[in-house]
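This follows on from our talk about sequence and fold. I would like you to pick a protein and set down its sequence and fold. Go ahead and set the record down below:
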Amino acid sequence: MDDNLNIIEASKLEYIYPDKTVGIKNFSLDIKESERLVLLGSNGSGKSTLLKLFAGLVKPTSGDIKIFGKRVVRENYLYFRKNIGFLFQNPDDFLFNPTVEDELLYTPMQLGFSLQEARKLISENANYFGIEKLYEKPPFRLSGGEKKRVALACVLQLNPKLLILDEPTSNIDGKTRKKIIDFLKEYKGTMIISTHEIDFVKKISNKVVLLNPEKEILNVGGIELLEDNEYLENAEIL
């Protein structure tokens, strides 16, 4: 792969919610192919807003963003859907089908796969995350860790080029946490993760973006930033 290829080009992004709350401001950054970038900041620093912008789920209020060189317009949504896997912080925002098997089949079936093709496609991830035995269960009856595993298996169905994860290790058991970390270590695509867990960042990241409480970039660098307590205190992480 071309290490110089920009997966995301963001320039002076600002996003303001309908109630006038500022989500992020003055954000500029290029994210290159195969980077494993972590957004690190306190609650309310803009991490989740940025992830939605990076996934093309919302358009910036001002500024410019390109994803895979494409602008966030309606005619590009299907391309984004095929090539971006997005894990929401709360799986309940994502899981809505009657059974776990229906959840797994939903995206490939919506994208034109036959039922036979879709079932073959979902089997590998279902096996890896140990959720085959949950196929007939309704998602709302699952534990927090089970919901997270099902949601992650769903977003990985099409082997996305860009994987975006919002607090993937929050509110889960130790076994599920290890499973997710092991998977992310092996993932070969471009990855963007938001978290406030410093130990998690050290295990899977090669680039760190520190956000301050004013919802702006504080610093960008390698994981050595995590050794600078002054920066971490300014970001209100310590």
About this structure: The mean pLDDT is 91. The longest strand covers residues 6-16. Residues 102 and 135 are 8 Å apart (CA to CA). The chain is about 35% helix and 25% strand.
